[in-house]
Amino acid sequence: MPNSIEVNSNLSVDCVIFGFDGERLNVLLIEEKDIGQGLLRKRLPGDLIHKGEGLDEAANRVLFELASLKNVLLKQCHTFGDPHRVNDEKDKKWLEIYRNNPEERVVTVSYYALVKMANFVPNPASFAGEALWQNIQDIPELAFDHNEIVEVALWKLQRHFELSKIGYELLPSKFTLNQLQQLHEAITQEELDKRNFRKKIVREKIIEATDEKQEGVLHKPARLYRIKPGQSALGN
Amino acid sequence: MPNSIEVNSNLSVDCVIFGFDGERLNVLLIEEKDIGQGLLRKRLPGDLIHKGEGLDEAANRVLFELASLKNVLLKQCHTFGDPHRVNDEKDKKWLEIYRNNPEERVVTVSYYALVKMANFVPNPASFAGEALWQNIQDIPELAFDHNEIVEVALWKLQRHFELSKIGYELLPSKFTLNQLQQLHEAITQEELDKRNFRKKIVREKIIEATDEKQEGVLHKPARLYRIKPGQSALGN
DNA sequence: ACAAAAGTGTTCGGGATACACCCATGC
DNA sequence: GCATGGGTGTATCCCGAACACTTTTGT
Q1: What is the mean pLDDT of residues B30-58?
Q2: Total structural domains in chain A?
Q3: Fewer CB within 10 Å: N-end or C-end of chain B?
Q4: Which amino acid residue lies closest to nucleotide C16, measuring CA to C1'?
Q5: Which positions 146-185 of A are in contact with B (Cβ < 8 Å)?
Q6: Could you tell me if residue B69 is inside a domain?
Q7: Do both A150 and A172 map to the same domain?
Q8: What whole-number distance in Å separates Cα of residue B153 and Cα of residue B159?
Q9: Considering the domain boundaries, does residue A233 fall inside one?
């Protein structure tokens, strides 16, 4: 694939973009258009790093090109550089089509991001393929070593989440405690007790009740909460 | 510096080797011989990655060449690839001397290791300079972005240490509870209460008492403990 | 009145923390 | 006998886990 921008042909970034829909956690995958060679496996969005471009910068660029998103939590995760990380025949064919020197070992730096799916509007022109959300429970065999990259990213996201209270940016600005609980359950992949969860959240003093309530629901409306002023929504 | 081995000229590893001497935590630094150009800053041991060599493999090679050490905890830490990570004049001069294309941006994958200083016998031939231990409290200004690499490595080591009980390999095979406490204090950089520490350790059931005691000390000899058979000394 | 989700308290066990004195040994 | 580190117990607080019923609203 000819490219007029100068790139580092052996350095790439891959982004594991976790999306929350209010209920479950999903990962953004790219599905190539079938170009008649049976190269059907899905993969993570990623790109070679441009000359003069930083790693974080490249990851942010991929995310921006893909969905015009800026300022989301985007953390470096792990770097994969096994010289044999590409050993499947389908992957090799793909490289022959899209890369200038398909034999070269490519080191990829993986990043993960956490976004609200409703905000995420994929830009169809950004990849030679289609973007789709895949439930975290149900990820198929991916190209290259991308299954491993997703696993590591999920693990790190979970560790990060349990240490520093990130994730509020995935909720509306006023939200119910149940929505918050669903977010926690989606990320940790565990069920939580409603009462214990609420006690814990109250203890943390990060959110506060408003005097508004849900509207338009067919049951008792829940009280809405918001992040307390002065609490940064972005973790470290 | 001509090199007959084929290398990836834009990929390196740097190793943050933490050493424990029974009392404090240190970092291994390389001090170049002064070649009359005032290139006096210390740096981390590291090297370009060879063609066909994996990242972990390269880090292990550096550690092995430096001290003939194998099978130590060596974990990938973070990847640094800012195109301007080399902007000091001294660093640029150093690159002109030691690298074929000193202008190229080099991405470095950092690793950290945790070793017992007594086991560590530096191999003088392995670097064009001298290896020295520097107390973690007292690290000077280093070359390139190596101060930042050390900081990140220490932070990750501490997080790793508090989650999964690593570090027993830094003690003799039979050790006193005080030695173990000093290890914890050196890594976490915090003081601990003796009684509470002992209760906690007992609860974890990773070590057990032997019926041996210290010898040759000028006070009441302490009981010696060992890791219970079947407990892996290596963390994950 | 019924369906659906909201909201609420108590008990138990275990771990974290704070704190001070006697003990065994070598010299 | 004295200096040096070794070794021990108790009380408090907070947190995590387990667990079931009443309330409010829309239809």
Answers
A1: 86
A2: 2
A3: N
A4: B196
A5: 159, 163
A6: yes
A7: no
A8: 10
A9: no
- A121: tokens are 């509007």
Q: Which of B48, B76, B55, B86 is nearest to B153 (CA)?
A: B76
In a domain, A149, yes or no: yes
Q: Give the pTM.
A: 0.92
Question: Are A54 and B8 an interchain contact pair (Cβ–Cβ within 8 Å)?
Answer: no
Looking at this protein, which amino acid is placed at residue A38?
Answer: G
Q: Which range marks the domain in which residue B179 is found?
A: 168-227
Q: Is A76 on the interface with B (CB under 8 A)?
A: yes
Phi, psi of A188 (to 5 degrees): -80, -10
A154 and A172, same structural domain? Answer: no
Is B121's pLDDT higher than 80? yes
Q: What is the DSSP letter of A175?
A: B
Write down the mean pLDDT value for chain B.
90
**pLDDT tens-digit map of A54-78:** 999 999 999 999 888 887 889 999 9
With respect to residue A155, please indicate whether it lies within any of the assigned structural domains.
Answer: yes
Q: E strands, B128-179, where?
A: 129-135
Mean pLDDT over residues B91-101, rounded? 88
Residue nearest to nucleotide D17 (CA to C1'): A196
| A126-174: pLDDT as tens digits | 766 789 999 999 999 999 999 999 999 999 999 999 988 889 989 999 9
